[in-house]
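=== RUN LOG ===
request id: a7f3
mode: sequence -> structure
chains: 1
length: 94
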Amino acid sequence: MSESTLVSLGVNLIAGGVLGALYMLGLWHTTRLLPHVRSPAALMAASFVGRAAILLGALWWLSDGHWSGLAAAMAGFLTARTVAVARVRREATP
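=== RESULT ===
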């Protein structure tokens, strides 16, 4: 594996982590708004569609047609998700 490939995978890993953090931040923001809107189901649906579209588009762009780039970005995304879930659980524990 060449050095440029390793750098590219590292960039995809970090970018996937940033995407994961932004995705979770969007979900957090949506859940904070739910009590204040007239149609919570519509807000959740619209938020999911928007977050998913941005995430999938960014992952597609990052992968550049290579499965290894997609795998690295997904690893970063899942790491960010795991960190976010652990943080919320820690704060929710009495």
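=== NOTES ===
The CA atoms of residues 21 and 80 lie 6 Å apart.
Helices lie at 3-33, 40-63, 67-92.
=== END ===
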